[in-house]
């Protein structure tokens, strides 16, 4: 039987941050990871360059059934704390846009930094190791694992959400939560592309790979970023952001001319060049192919002079408030995050400790805290892992 101070289940962003911070406090830490490598999502993230934080991260960038929950941890471990560690390790980085910080080289730099800090603190990290059973004992927790039985005074669940099962995602953290009397709020895929069917799918397939400036609205939110047509439907940052607020059956509204008042712009075009085909005029703001296909899709492939005032208004409505009803989302297969999870009303916002079972902690995405796109989810993983590490 092995005995240690802290067992952390899951060697992702939150688990590694918790491990290195607790180890720096002198705690003996064992990290158990079921897949064959730590930090797989870190490696995949940010298109291989890890958008590791956002300089402007604040509670308003997160949603949860309990919106105040994230405040304390985010205030006590800020983006600047993480940036400090990155700088200390000489990892080169840059701001891409909107406060989003990316590695100049590769995501591996961030993972190596975290693993290096874990090693420095003497963290014992075991991969390919499953936890089969957890029991509460007087002094803490007894785990039955592939490496035998382990006892610990603190047990940290850092198993993440359900997104991308091929990267090691499991529902194990939710099972542990339920075992110890926690509620788990319904989960669904977030930051995920939409799928389409019927004529919209045909349009998306034909335009696959085309990106356009947009403002996308839905669920009381609006995001001004690019959208991307894919062979299954719609993606790109604007769509990923709005997907977290979308419910099946809802429409989203897409403004394809976010820099113009569409009606005024069309009226000006009609007055200036009445003989031009709509596709030619749209070709000035979209790619030629997108202009042609959209004009056909909206049944508006004709010269501008043939549009009545009412038709021009309808067309303007398509351009600045194109209503699209997605067939669904690509689901956990490609989602960046999982919405919902362990109900934070039963967890201390200061320490991440269970209010149901002392010595049990939940950190990172397994909790019902989800950030916007742009480095906010890693910042939550760092901040929550750090908060728990102060007391485990
Ligand atoms: P995470 O999923 O990182 O780690 C959980 C770990 O637990 C995994 O290693 C898993 O294998 C392990 N595990 C699961 N079940 C287990 C079990 N039963 N026993 C032992 N171990 C178990 N965010 C961001 O801010 N910037 C970005 O650039 C990106 N990019 C991005 C790209 C892609 C493709 C994805 C899928 C996600 C992102 N994200 C992101 C989101 C970000 O990756 C995510 O929010 C954090 O990794 C969550 O950190 P956690 O440590 O909570 O879970």
Can you tell me about this structure?
There is one protein chain. This protein has 392 residues and is an alpha+beta fold. It has two domains: 2-189 and 337-389, FAD/NAD(P)-binding domain (3-Layer(bba) Sandwich), CATH 3.50.50.60; 194-329, Elongation Factor Tu (Ef-tu), domain 3 (Beta Barrel), CATH 2.40.30.10. It is built from 13 helices and 21 strands. It has helices at residues 13-24, 40-48, 71-76, 79-88, 108-120, 172-179, 198-206, 237-243, 262-272, 278-282, 288-297, 309-320, 376-389; strands at residues 2-9, 29-32, 51-54, 62-63, 93-95, 100-103, 124-126, 131-137, 140-145, 148-157, 184-190, 194-195, 211-218, 221-229, 233-235, 252-255, 322-324, 328-329, 337-342, 360-362, 370-371. The strands form five sheets. Strands 1, 2, 7, 8, 9, 10 and 20 form a seven-stranded mixed sheet that branches. A seven-stranded antiparallel sheet has the order 17-16-13-14-15-12-18. The longest helix is centred in the C-terminal third of the chain and has 14 residues, at 376-389. It is elongated. The model has no long low-confidence stretch (mean pLDDT 97). Dihydroflavine-adenine dinucleotide is lined by residues 9-15, 32-35, 40-41, 44-46, 50-51, 131, 158-160, 163-164, 168, 170, 172, 336-337, 364-366, 375-378, 381.
Number of helices: 13
Instruction: Give the CATH topology of the largest domain.
Output: FAD/NAD(P)-binding domain
Unreliable residue stretches: none
Query: What is the CATH homologous superfamily assignment of the largest domain?
Result: FAD/NAD(P)-binding domain
Number of DSSP strand runs: 21
Binned strand content: 25-35%
CATH architecture of the largest domain: 3-Layer(bba) Sandwich
Mean pLDDT: 97
Q: For this entry, what is the oligomeric state of its chains?
A: single chain
Ligands bound to this protein structure: dihydroflavine-adenine dinucleotide
Give the biggest beta sheet.
Answer: 7 strands, mixed
Structural class: alpha+beta
Count of structural domains: 2
Radius of gyration in whole Å, from Cα?
24 Å
Measured between the Cα atoms of the first and last residue, the distance is: 21 Å
What is the approximate shape?
elongated
Top CATH class of the largest domain: Alpha Beta
Kindly state the percentage of residues in helix: 25-40%
């Amino acid at each position: 039987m092995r005995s240690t101070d802290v067992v952390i289940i899951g060697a992702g962003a939150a688990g590694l941050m918790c491990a290195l911070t607790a180890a720096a406090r002198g705690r003996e830490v064992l990290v158990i990871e079921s897949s064959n490598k730590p930090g797989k999502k870190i490696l995949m993230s940010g298109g291989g360059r890890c958008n590791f934080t956002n300089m402007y991260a604040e509670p308003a960038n997160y949603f949860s059934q309990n919106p105040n929950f994230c405040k304390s941890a985010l205030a006590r471990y800020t983006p600047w704390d993480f940036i400090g560690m990155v700088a200390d390790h000489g990892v080169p980085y840059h701001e891409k846009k909107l406060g989003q910080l990316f590695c100049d080289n590769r995501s591996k730099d961030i993972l190596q930094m975290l693993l290096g800090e874990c090693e420095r603190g003497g963290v014992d990290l075991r991969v390919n190791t499953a936890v089969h059973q957890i029991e509460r004992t007087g002094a803490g927790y007894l785990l039955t694992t592939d490496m035998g039985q382990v006892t610990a005074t603190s047990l940290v669940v850092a198993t993440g959400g359900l997104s991308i099962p091929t990267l090691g995602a499991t529902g194990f953290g939710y099972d542990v939560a339920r075992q110890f009397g926690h509620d788990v709020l319904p989960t669904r895929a977030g930051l995920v592309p939409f799928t389409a069917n019927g004529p919209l799918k045909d349009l998306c397939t034909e335009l696959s790979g085309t990106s356009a400036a947009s403002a996308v609205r839905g669920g009381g939110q609006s995001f001004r970023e690019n959208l991307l047509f894919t062979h299954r439907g719609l993606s790109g940052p604007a769509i990923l952001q709005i997907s977290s607020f979308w419910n099946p059956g809802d429409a989203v509204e897409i403004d394809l001319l976010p820099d113009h008042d569409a009606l005024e712009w069309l009226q000006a075009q009609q007055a200036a060049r009445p003989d031009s085909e709509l596709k030619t005029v749209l070709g000035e703001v979209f790619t030629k192919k997108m202009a042609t296909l959209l004009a056909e899709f909206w049944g508006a492939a004709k010269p501008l002079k043939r549009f009545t005032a009412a038709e021009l208004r309808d067309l303007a409505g398509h351009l600045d408030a194109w209503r699209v009803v997605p067939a669904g989302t690509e689901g956990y297969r490609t989602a960046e995050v999982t919405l919902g999870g362990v109900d934070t009303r039963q967890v201390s916002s200061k320490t991440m400790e269970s209010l149901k079972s002392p010595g049990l902690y939940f950190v990172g995405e397994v909790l019902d805290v989800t950030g916007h796109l742009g480095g906010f989810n890693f910042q939550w993983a760092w901040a929550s892992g750090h908060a728990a590490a102060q007391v485990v």
